[in-house]
Amino acid sequence: MLKTSISTVGGLLIATSLSTAAVAAVCTDDLKILAQPRGSLTLLEERAAEFEALSGVSFTIDFLNENDRRAKSRAEASTTGRYNVYYIDEANVALFAENEWIVPLEKHFPSEFHLDDFDPSRLTVGSYEGDLYFAPIQGGGDFLYYRKDLLDAAGITPPTTLDELKVAIKALHDPENNVYGFALRGGRGSGANVWRWMTYFRGFGGEWFDGDTPTFNSEAAIKATETYLELFQYSPPGTSTGSWTEVTEAFNSGQVALIVESSPLAGLTEDASSSAVAGKVGYTVPPRPLTGGGYGHGLAIGAKANRDEAALDCAGLFIGWATSQDQEMQRLEQGIFGDLNRQSVFASDEFAAKYSGNIATALEETAEFTTVNFWPNADWPDLGDRWGIILEELIVGSRSDIPEALNELEDYANDLIARR
Amino acid sequence: MKAKSHINKVFLGPPLFVLAVLALVPTIAAIIISFQNKELGRRGTSFVGFENYINLFSDRRFSNAMKVSLQWEAITVIGTMIVAILVAILLFETTRGRTRAIISTLLIVPVLLPRVTAAFVWKFMFNPLLGVINYPIKELTGAPIEFLSNIQTALISVAVVDIWQWGLFFAVILLKLLETLPKEPFEAARIDKARTWEIYAYVAIPMLAAPLISLTFVKMVESLRSFDLIYVMTRGGPGIVTETLDMYAFNQGFVESGRISYASAMAVLMLLTTIITFTVLFKWVRKWQTA
Predict the structure, then answer these.
(1) A238 vs B41, B146, B240: nearest CB
(2) Which of A100, B83, B270, B273 gives the lowest tally of CB atoms within 10 Å of its CB?
C-alpha cells in the first residue's frame, strides 16, 4: 500500500516536474497585466505561487477602475505597449484587434485549458472578424431584479412588459420612506449610461448604422431617450452621474424596488455580508421589449510586449491558467458569481447547490433576450462615449432638446466616418 | 569682470538646460503634434495645418470649457483671497500667542493634504445618501442636495474644496504679514476714531497691497492646475458643467477619442492665452504700482 502510494506520488511529482519544465521553457520574463479590479483577479494574486510553479515566472497586475483602465490601455497599447496581457471588454475588442494591439488568442491558448468549455456567447463578444481575442473573465446578460417583499406587500406581480414595469415603479416609488421605484445609470460612458439606454433603443427597433450611414437618429432613439428620462424621475439620488457602483449599492442597501441590471449583480445581492436584501430578491428576464445587454470582459495577449512566439505562448499560458476551470471552481466556492463563464461550472453540482432555483432559471431564460446592443466597430468607444456625455447632459437637465442632441451625435458620427 | 560672467554661466547653465529639456521639448512636441491629425486608434499621421485650431472654434464643448475655466479662475481666486483676508483679520483681532500658533498650524493642514485625497474626502462628504454635509439637510428638508450632480451647485462645490485648501493657507500667510506691520498707523487711525473695518480697509490692506497681489498671482497660476480636483470629484460633469480646458483636452486625448492632435491644439491655445493674459496683467500691475 505504502509502496503504491510512494510510487503514485513519485509518478505525479515526475509528471508535474516534467510538465513544469516543459512550460517553464516558454516563460523567461515576469508578466505585466493591466486590468480592472475583479474578485477573480484578486484571487489570482493570492494563488500566484501556482503560476510560478507552472511557468517559472511571476506576474504583476496593475488595477485601474473601468473608465481609467479603458483610457490607459488605449493610450498604452497604441504607444509603448509594455503590458503582456490586457483586460479588455466587448466594446473595445474591435478597436484593439483592428489596430493589432492584441493578437488572436486561440493559437497561444494551451489546449489543456479547454477553450471550448466557455459559454459560447462570451466567446462571441470576445471575437472580431472570425478570430477570438479574449478568454472571458466575466460576462452575461441582464436580469430584472425585483424586491419580492415590496411587490408582495403591494400585491404586484413581477412585470413582464415595459408598461407593466412603469406601473409597478410608480406604485412602489416612496422616497419619503427611502424606497425608490427604479435605478438607472446616469453617468457618462459607452459602458455606463449608454449601456443601459441601448436596451431601450434596440428594444424599440433602433439600429446604429446601415453600412457607413448612421441610422440611429430615429423615432426609436427619441422614444428610448424619452423613456429613459421619464424613468429617471424614480431613480435614487446620486445615480444621475453614477454608474454600476451607485445603482447596485442603492439596490443592495434596500433603497430600490426594481432594477434592470447585468447578471453579476445577483451574486452581490445574495451575499448577506454586503447586501441588506439577500433572500428578498426575485430574478427574471428584462420586461419586453427591452433587450438584454450581452457583454463580456476578458484577458487578451498584448502584441508589442510579447516580441516572439515564446513570449506569446507564455502570455497565452497565463490566460489559460487565469481562466481555467480550476480557477472558476475557486470563484464559485468564494461566491464570485459574476466571474463564472464555463459551461462545466454552470453544470456542476456545486453551482446547483449554491445558486439553485430562481437565479439558475433566470440565467437560462435570459439568454433568449440577450443581444449585442452596441455598434461592433473600432469607433464604437468614441461614438458611445460622445453619446454618454450628451445623454448625461439630458439627464441632469443642462439640455433638453432630444432631436437636437441626436442631430449633434449624427454630425459627430459622420465626422468619425470621414476621418477614417 | 570676466571671471564674474563665467560664474553666471556656471550657475545659470545647468538650470537652463534642465528647464529646456523639461519644458521646451514637450512644448515644441505639442506644437508640432497640434498641426497633425494624430489619433491613438488610427494609423498614419500627416500635417493638416491649422485644421485642429479651426475646428476648435466650432466645437461647443471647447467654448464651454473656455467659459468654465474662466469661471473657475474667477471663483477660486476671488474666493481664496476673500477667505484669506477675512480669516486673517479675524485671527489677528481675536487670538494671541499660543492659541494663534495652534490655530495657524491647523489651518495649514488642508493645503498639506494631497489634492486627490482632499477631493475624495469632500466627494464623500457631499454624497447625497451617506455624506455628512447632507445629513442635516436631509433632516431639515427631507431630501438631500446632490451637490456634485446638480448643474447649479457642482462647480461651486468643487471650488469650495480649492478655497478650503488655499484660502486657509493664505490666511496664515496674511496673519504673519499683519504681525509684521508697524503699529503706529493703526494707533493713528484709532485716535482718529476709525472703526475696525475701516482700519483694515483703509490702512492694513493698502499696506499689504504688494504681497496681496503676489499671492493673487500665485493663486491664479495654481488655479490653472485644477485637473486632479475636478477629475476626482466630477470628471467634468454633470454633463460638461465643470469641464475645464485641461479636463476637456484630457478627455479628447485619452478618455473618449484618442485625438491627440486635437487635444494638443487645445493645450497650445491654453498656453498662449495664459502667457498673453499673465503678461498683460503683470504689466498692468507694475504700471499701477509705479503710478
Answers:
(1) B146
(2) A100
- The pLDDT of residue B152 is 94
Mutate to test the interface with B, among A99, A240, A415 (most CBs of B within 10 A): A240
Residue A176, chain B, CB below 8 Å: the answer is yes
How does pLDDT run across A207-226, given as a tens digit for each residue? 999 988 999 999 999 999 99
Q: How far apart are CA A101 and CA A103, in angstroms?
A: 7
Of A331, A385, A319, A408, whose CA–CA distance to A115 is shortest? Answer: A319
Q: Please classify residue A64 by burial: count the beta carbons closer than 10 Å to its beta carbon, then call 0-12 exposed, 13-18 middle and 19+ buried.
A: middle
Evaluate whether residue B172 is within a structural domain.
yes
B258/A78 Cβ within 8 A: yes
Output the pLDDT for position A17.
40
Mean pLDDT of B118-145: 89
Check residue A16 and give its pLDDT: 39
Interface contact flag, B237 A95, Cβ < 8 Å: no
- How many pairs of residues across A and B have Cβ atoms under 8 Å apart? 91
Residue B204 lies in a domain: yes
Q: Which residues of B touch A (CB under 8 A)?
A: 37, 39-43, 61, 127-129, 142-144, 146, 148-151, 234-235, 237-241, 254-258
Distance in angstroms (rounded) separating the CA atoms of residues B265 and B30? 8
Model ipTM?
0.86
Range of the domain at B185: 35-290
CA distances from B65 to A342, B216, B241, B255 (A): 47, 23, 8, 16
**More confidently predicted of B285 and A229:** A229
Number of domains present in the structure of chain B: 1
Residues of chain A above pLDDT 90, percent:
71
Q: What is the pTM of this model?
A: 0.87
The residue in chain A having the minimum alpha-carbon distance to the alpha carbon of residue B260 is: A75
* Domains detected in chain A: 2-140+295-347 (3.40.190.10), 142-293+361-418 (3.40.190.10)
In a domain, B96, yes or no: yes
The CATH number for B214's domain is 1.10.3720.10
In a domain, B244, yes or no: yes
pLDDT at A95 over 70: yes
DSSP string, A169-206: HHHH-BGGGTBBS-----S-STTTHHHHHHHHHHHTT-
Distance from CA of A37 to the nearest CA of B (A): 18
* Residues of chain A with C-beta less than 8 angstroms from the C-beta of B125: none
What's the grid cell of residue B188? 493713528
Q: Which of B61, B142, B238 sits opposite A398 (nearest CB)?
A: B238
Interface contact flag, B237 A396, Cβ < 8 Å: yes
